[in-house]
Amino acid sequence: MLDGAYVRAVPGHQVRKFEVICGKVEQESHYSRRFALVRSVAEQPHTLLRAALLDQDWRESSPVTAISDGDPALPALVRSAAKAPVESILDWFHLSMRVRHVEQTFIGLAALELAECAPLEHAQADVERLRHLLWKGKHGQACQALDRIVSWEVNAALLNGAAVEVKVGRLVAHRTELRSYIENNEDTLIDYGQRYRAGKPISAQEPRARSIGWSMRA
User: Fold this and answer.
1) Are the CB atoms for 209 and 144 separated by under 8 Å?
2) Contact, 1 vs 24, CB < 8 A?
3) What is the pLDDT of residue 206?
4) Under DSSP, is residue 140 helix (H, G, I), strand (E, B) or coil?
5) Per-residue pLDDT reduced to its tens digit, 151-189
6) In degrees rounded to 5, what are phi and psi of residue 34?
7) Nearest 10 degrees: Cα torsion 75, 213, 210, 195
8) Alpha helix positions (H), 161-206
9) Which residues does 43 contact at the CB level (< 8 Å), separation at least 6?
10) Alpha helices per DSSP H over 83-138
11) Would you give the DSSP letter of residue 59?
């Protein structure tokens, strides 16, 4: 389980910032081992992670599953520590939150009293199935749905004028962010539903993992 965040100085006090990496190593039937480090200060950050693995009775060369937020540096740190096969998976929580941004913006549009509602009605079907497509691992279809959603919303703006232009602009921005996130993490996207049904972790936001094998979740 790996996640990173930048700690910034108080404005006007310092200009310095640094990155904190937090993580947790879990194995079934073991208590989890937590760790944290500052990348710019730690002399050998991979040794701390390796120690956490070994503390969980991890065996040399055994494969590891790393679930993180899409930052390629985090799985790379795991590979450096384990020197073993690493399966990298995008954390479902981080993906789901970006889907939520699209959903909430659409809800705001649908709440407006528009003269021409047909484009919103067409877009609604794709908005409602977007999360399901990603959950099932159908990432190409999800991107197509995002493109259709924006197309319908642009039509809604043309038909209804300034009343919806600002909200449509926000939806387009969220769509672009989500589509880029999907494309940039294509190799780490999976069928989350299948993995979840198998009792394997998909996100750090779950209760204690019903994990099989080794997992590192963001």
Assistant:
1) no
2) yes
3) 58
4) helix
5) 877 776 666 667 677 777 888 899 899 999 999 999 999
6) -105, 150
7) 70
8) 162-184, 192-197
9) none
10) 92-110, 118-135
11) P
pTM for this one? 0.81
Q: How many CA atoms lie within 13 A of 132 on its CB side?
A: 6
Query: 139 near 182, Cβ under 8 Å?
Result: yes
- Report which of 19, 166, 192 is spatially closest to residue 99, judged by C-alpha positions: 192
* Nearest-angstrom CA–CA distance, 79 and 81: 5
Helix (H, G, I), strand (E, B) or coil at 176: helix
Q: Are 103 and 124 in contact (CB under 8 A)?
A: no
What pLDDT shows up at residue 218?
30
Low-confidence ranges of the chain (pLDDT < 50): 207-218
What count of other Cβ atoms lies within 10 Å of the Cβ of residue 5? 10
The CA distances from residue 161 to 153, 165, 171, in Å, are 12, 7, 16
Mean model confidence pLDDT for the chain: 83
68 vs 53: CA distance, rounded Å: 16
Q: How far is Cα 102 from Cα 179, in angstroms, rounded to an integer?
A: 11
pLDDT score, position 133 = 96
